[in-house]
Amino acid sequence: MAHVVDPTSGPAYQQIADELRRRIRSGAFAPGSKLPTEVELIREFDVSRVVVRLAVGELRAEGLIYSRQGKGTFVREHGPVRRIAGDRYRHDLAQIKRYGAPDPPKGTSFTRDHGITWDQYRLDKDFQVVSAPREVAELLDLDPELGTKVLQRRFVFYANDRAQQMSWSYYPFDLVRDTPVADPTNEPWPGGNLAQLATLGIFITRVEESVRSRMPTPDERRTLNIAEGVPVLLVARRMLTGPEGDRPPVEAANIVIPAADTALDYTIDLE
């Protein structure tokens, strides 16, 4: 039986997209389930193939569905990851203070964000010594014209063998030269960056993050399996040490997270 499209209620493709979106959000089309084929949607809504493709394209652009070559179109599985600004780093610091820098429990802010155990977590990693890119030099308060050497660490973070996040993290090379922090075989490191630096006698007192959205690069889309049309969140971070008024930055990072899978939660205490 055809679902009636009302010609007085706006474009037909938009009405079809609204109906399919409603079914997805109500659970009628469950996460992971296959969407009806183009032919089935043409019959149900009594419209042309072009109209159906426009409707499906809108849902794909929203990140609600994705297509597999030769297999069909499927409802994306959504489970927002919750990044809690401030609290996530305070937790790492509390663990370091309780257990000591070399021996914090096996976990990081990433494993807590995803609710996974240490054995469900892994990293792809690539370490290189490079001249600080201009953006990184600015984050680390370095003169971008000097070409200061930094340790560049490219990570892909996995939860249950699914790539969830990418990052490019930078330390001034003189800070970590010939230390365990510069050895990629020590990754993943329990306690993350704060624990790494604490083993060198460096204790982070401030974390600054700036968040913006953009479309993913081809490499990011491929690595993180991001649906067409879905943006990413780019978190530019730097970690600082020392007392207030004298906090030289010691780490800078650019973190890339698919926006469709992420919620940014902030608590602002005004007391």
In short:
This protein has 271 residues and is α+β, with helices and mostly antiparallel strands.
Write up what this structure looks like.
By secondary structure, the chain is α+β, with helices and mostly antiparallel strands. The chain folds into two domains: 12-75, Winged helix-like DNA-binding domain superfamily/Winged helix DNA-binding domain (Arc Repressor Mutant, subunit A, Orthogonal Bundle), CATH 1.10.10; 81-265, Chorismate lyase-like (Chorismate lyase, 3-Layer(aba) Sandwich). It has nine helices and ten strands. The chain has a six-stranded antiparallel sheet. A hairpin with a 2-residue loop joins β5 and β6 (162-172). The radius of gyration is 23 Å and the shape is elongated. The model has no long low-confidence stretch (mean pLDDT 90).
List keywords for this structure.
271 residues, alpha+beta, Arc Repressor Mutant, subunit A, Chorismate lyase, 2 domains, six-stranded antiparallel sheet, two-stranded antiparallel ribbon, 9 helices, 29% helix, elongated
The appropriate CATH architecture of the largest domain is: 3-Layer(aba) Sandwich
Report the total helices.
9
* Assigned CATH superfamily of the largest domain: Chorismate lyase-like
Q: Which structural class is indicated by helix and strand composition?
A: alpha+beta
Instruction: Going across the biggest sheet, name each strand in turn.
Output: 4-5-6-9-8-7
Distance between the termini: 60 Å
Q: How helical, in percent, are the residues? A: 25-40%
Shape: elongated
CATH level 1 class label of the largest domain:
Alpha Beta
**Could you name the CATH topology of the largest domain?**
Chorismate lyase
Number of domains: 2
What is the percentage of strand-forming residues?
Answer: 25-35%
Mean pLDDT: 90
Number of strands: 10
- Low-confidence stretches are none
Rg for CA atoms: 23 Å
Order of helices and strands: HHHEEEHHEHEEHHEHEEE
Largest sheet: 6 strands, antiparallel
